[in-house]
């Protein structure tokens, strides 16, 4: 999701989705952002329904209040109307300002939902494993983090963090072949998403800095995945080797991009699941 997450149109649509989730009138419209905004609506619904018994730090409460007050001030929530419009336009104004107020309210709800999801609520579910009651909350929190991320670099790094988390979970279900394979499927999907975002940024900017996060991730992830193969009680060695092959392919892609950037090649036009596929540098460059 781009940095205009809480633009007016998105905020108004978010308000509609919140209404529908709470039993309000159904709006017969669709938006390209629905898939991303629905993740935030789901977090809001779960926060209301499940209410984990978590003590929220006083410092967090103070910071959240300051952030909401600043957002309200910036967006003009609660500010009196100073337009002085009368006549037909004046008659229509309440409906217009009502929609804007709902949009601004949605901004605050989104900020609050995201902030809560990243604090006490996420703390209650961060150690949940597949099959646990709070595991769905954990995954919803991750989707909310992605929706609130401010850049492709941030999203790429989050996906790689989630891939690390899936690997930790895989170790806990290694005796269950089907469960183990499902977790590795999710891990590989997060790996591909994270690598693709970061390699794309590096290629577009002709700057290898974003690849540093890929290299750091691969070094640690390869070590742990290889360690799984050494365990005598391992559930599915062939499936684990496929994940290891993906990590090797990601490493080769990052190396190739570094070389292409170093020798001044333009941003690659071809792309695949790991992002831009660079050409080989000409000899002598």
Beta strand count: 2
User: What is the structural class?
Assistant: mainly alpha
Could you tell me how far the N terminus lies from the C terminus, measured between alpha carbons in angstroms? 38 Å
Low-confidence region ranges: 1-6, 85-89
SSE pattern, N- to C-terminal: HHHHHHHHHHEE
Mean pLDDT, all residues: 77
- Rg for CA atoms: 23 Å
Order of adjacent strands in the largest pleated sheet: 1-2
Q: Number of helical runs?
A: 10
Beta-strand residue percentage: under 5%
Helical proportion, percent range: 55-70%
Shape verdict: flat
Q: How does the major sheet shape up?
A: 2 strands, antiparallel
Notable traits:
single chain; 285 residues; mainly alpha; 2 strands; flat; disordered N terminus
Question: What's the SSE blueprint?
Answer:
Layout: H1 8-21, H2 34-50, H3 58-75, H4 87-117, H5 120-125, H6 135-148, H7 152-172, H8 177-205, H9 211-229, H10 237-262, E1 271-272, E2 275-276
Antiparallel strand pairs: 1-2
Helix pairs in contact: 1-2, 1-4, 2-4, 2-6, 3-4, 6-7, 7-8, 7-9, 8-10, 9-10
């Amino acid at each position: 999701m781009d940095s205009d997450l809480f633009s007016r149109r998105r905020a108004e649509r978010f308000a509609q989705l919140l209404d529908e989730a709470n039993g309000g009138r159904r709006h017969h419209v669709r938006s390209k952002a629905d898939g991303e905004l629905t993740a935030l609506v789901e977090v809001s619904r779960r926060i209301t329904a499940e209410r984990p018994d978590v003590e929220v730090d006083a410092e967090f409460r103070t910071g959240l209040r300051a952030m909401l007050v600043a957002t309200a001030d910036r967006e003009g929530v609660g500010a009196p109307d100073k337009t002085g419009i009368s006549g037909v336009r004046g008659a229509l104004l309440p409906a217009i300002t009502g929609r804007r107020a709902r949009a601004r309210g949605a901004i605050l709800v989104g900020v609050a939902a995201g902030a809560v999801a990243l604090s006490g609520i996420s703390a209650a579910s961060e150690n949940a494993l597949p099959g646990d009651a709070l595991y769905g909350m954990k995954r919803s929190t991750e989707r909310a983090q992605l929706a609130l991320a401010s850049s492709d670099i941030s999203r790429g790094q989050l996906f790689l963090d989630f891939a690390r988390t899936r690997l930790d979970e895989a170790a806990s279900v290694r005796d269950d072949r089907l469960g183990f394979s499902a977790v590795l499927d999710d891990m590989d999907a997060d790996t591909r998403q994270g690598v693709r975002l970061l390699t794309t940024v590096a290629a577009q900017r002709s700057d290898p800095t974003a690849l540093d996060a890929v290299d750091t991730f691969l070094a640690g992830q390869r070590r742990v995945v290889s360690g799984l193969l050494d365990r005598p009680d391992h559930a599915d060695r062939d499936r684990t080797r496929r994940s290891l092959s993906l990590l090797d392919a990601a490493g080769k892609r990052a190396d190739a991009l570094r070389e292409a950037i170093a020798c001044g090649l333009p941003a690659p036009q071809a792309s695949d699941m790991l992002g831009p596929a660079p050409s080989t540098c000409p000899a002598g460059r």
